[in-house]
């Protein structure tokens, strides 16, 4: 178990992301969702991440139900605040990062102090819990100033009151996350998709700043929303169909991995975990089989020769720490 910054909140090196059980891209049944959480538990995962945005609260409700009979002090739950779907008379039918937005709802960002508190209260009700261990401000990309000026102080007060153990921000970009690391007293940031085999953006500023400040980094989106899990035509990259050049690169990485007797999925999970600022790798799964596959891949060392070949071909930056692999 690893600790989030100076908070005392503990997480496993591999964490369960509950977007998939909130019907990300594909609908799953309650039974399938519970089986996925059960498989995570059976394989030693004790940290679980969700958000109200994931399936109109469905992810939180399912996760809470799946964990209800577990000892509360034996696991860590994180959720998010600030990004919501609220009822309206007429709305979307579009996709919000892989989640269908029904015509009865619209996307809303509210990083006010009151909005953050109301969001957390609603999350606790859906989860069936009296506390969560960590809360992230969720995707404040176009609302950074309000999030820093109003949302963050609200989380700081909740932490001081003991309502939550750790606070931070979660985003799909690094610039604003780096501001949170440098300008606030967050315990942790969740960086999705920006430190992977295909995208090394977090290496430039975010990861060094986090290490210098003692802020933990959780890496989500290690598969870039699907492409690095199963590169094929139609595979998704950052929640949209992968462009041809990235699909070609992912297929090339897969071929190298197979030549060295490993899998692209195992390599994709191992790479971000090797950075000393990274506390946990968050994997989304919608079935027990996906969970078991991720756990097995994460536990299997990737041959050192694979990493050397990627470095020699310029596919990994010289500054990126390489995982310890089989020789």
Please give the CATH architecture. Alpha-Beta Barrel
Sheet with the most strands, sense and barrel status: 8 strands, parallel, barrel
Order of helices and strands: EEEHEHEEEEEHEHEHEHEEEHHEHH
The total of beta strands comes to 16
CATH class value: Alpha Beta
Oligomeric state of the chains present here: single chain
By secondary-structure content and strand pairing, the structural class works out as alpha/beta
C-alpha Rg, in Å? 19 Å
Describe the structure.
This protein is an alpha/beta fold and 327 residues long. The chain has one domain: TIM Barrel (Alpha-Beta Barrel). It has ten helices and 16 strands. The chain has helices at residues 30-42, 58-67, 113-127, 144-160, 175-183, 206-213, 244-259, 264-273, 288-299, 304-312, and strands at residues 2-3, 10-11, 14-17, 47-49, 76-81, 83-87, 95-96, 99-100, 105-109, 134-138, 166-171, 188-192, 216-220, 236-237, 240-241, 278-284. Strands 3-4-5-10-11-12-13-16 form an eight-stranded parallel β-barrel, surrounded by six helices. Strands 1-2 form a two-stranded antiparallel sheet. A hairpin with a 6-residue loop joins β1 (2-3) and β2. α8 (264-273) crosses α9. The longest helix has 17 residues, at 144-160. It is globular, with a radius of gyration of 19 Å. The model has no long low-confidence stretch (mean pLDDT 93).
Task: Describe the protein's topology.
Elements: E1 2-3, E2 10-11, E3 14-17, H1 30-42, E4 47-49, H2 58-67, E5 76-81, E6 83-87, E7 95-96, E8 99-100, E9 105-109, H3 113-127, E10 134-138, H4 144-160, E11 166-171, H5 175-183, E12 188-192, H6 206-213, E13 216-220, E14 236-237, E15 240-241, H7 244-259, H8 264-273, E16 278-284, H9 288-299, H10 304-312
Parallel strand pairs: 3-4, 3-16, 4-5, 5-10, 10-11, 11-12, 12-13, 13-16
Antiparallel strand pairs: 1-2, 6-9, 7-8, 14-15
Helix pairs in contact: 1-2, 1-9, 3-4, 5-6, 8-9
